[in-house]
Amino acid sequence: MATLSKDELQQARIDLAASFRWAVRHGLHEGICNHFSLAVGDDQFLINPHGFHWSEITASSLLLANYDGTIVEGDREVEPTAFYIHSRVHKACPQATCVMHTHMPYATALTLVEGGRLEPVEQGGLRFHGKIAYDDDYNGLALDTSEGDRIAEKMGNCSVMFMAAHGVTVTGSTIARTYDHLYYLERACQAQVIARSTGLPLRRLPDDVIERTVQQFAQSNTDSAPIHFEALKRILDRDEPDYKE
Predict the structure, then answer these.
(1) pTM for the full predicted model
(2) Which of 160, 177, 199, 211 has its CA at a distance of 20 to 30 angstroms from the CA of residue 14?
(3) pLDDT score, position 231
């Protein structure tokens, strides 16, 4: 990918900081854990520093790191699992300009049960149909390059991966689209976990309806992710303007 200009890099910092602030508001965060990153060209990526709660992350607090782990800008460290997951996924998966890894509760719940899958039973889930990889082999913490490479290989060309006993990784071409995917993925998982809790079987949609709806999503001229994200930033501009600092 082309290396971002100075102005583009600053806007990327602002947008990535906004995504962290909204992950807190949407309940997608977990302490000081989990990580969002953005490839910016020249084998470099922005990522959150270890030890920051997401509610306090600002544009200037984000780290700029090389794929080899060197910190180019910033005075903190990259959490080790963050480095091994994100650097390898950015390097191996061409669709993964932005990578968001979380342990958000409803999506993670599906990684804990036998046969846990996001089923094609409702509209929210259908937007991800055919775009999900499932890694059913939990290998412990990602603390070396080989585990990062294994995760990246499992991800392949998919935009979402459910990671057994762990959480999810969501990728996209921009911060806005990736965060939009992350938000709606958790909403779809929430609906299905709640439906399963009734003890009643999920009602699968007919195959022709599934395929037609998937095509409708693909052919739609309405890309709501950018305007969704702009709306979120307007709220932050009013309530938490320090995210831009």
Answers:
(1) 0.96
(2) 160
(3) 98
